[in-house]
Here is the input.
Amino acid sequence: MSATDPNCIFCKIVSGKIPSRKVYEDDHVFAFHDIAPWAPVHFLMIPKLHIPSMAHVGVEQAGLMGHMMTLAPKLAMQEGCNPYPEGGYRIVLNTGMEGGQEVHHLHMHVMGGPRPWLKG
Ligand code: AMP
Here is the structure.
């Protein structure tokens, strides 16, 4: 696994080669609005390192994954999700072809806002 993949669309988003609507950035992660949102709030959070999928995550990534999981609720509220329990949000990590993963750079979907949603 290399740090970045020059052919990866999400690596290009991290480097700014492809524009995105940024939600959040720190040394380890980048979050941006999904280009085809399913819900009123729909953003993706990705590691800056090119990790292809959850199938590539080991104990070395426990800190990174914990960081993403604990950040997601804060960013969800920041982006307009309503408070738990009447509100809330959905966190999804599609993995592999049968898991519905289309972009092979690990990404966490965070979806929320008033229903009905376009999908899901
Ligand atoms: P998945 O099916 O889990 O791999 O999700 C990939 C997601 O990336 C989809 O929801 C796409 O709409 C989204 N996506 C693809 N290209 C871009 C882009 N350039 N900017 C923002 N979101 C994108």
In short: The chain has two helices and five strands. Residues 77 and 83 are 7 Å apart (CA to CA). Residues 9-112 form a domain with the HIT family, subunit A fold (CATH 3.30.428.10).
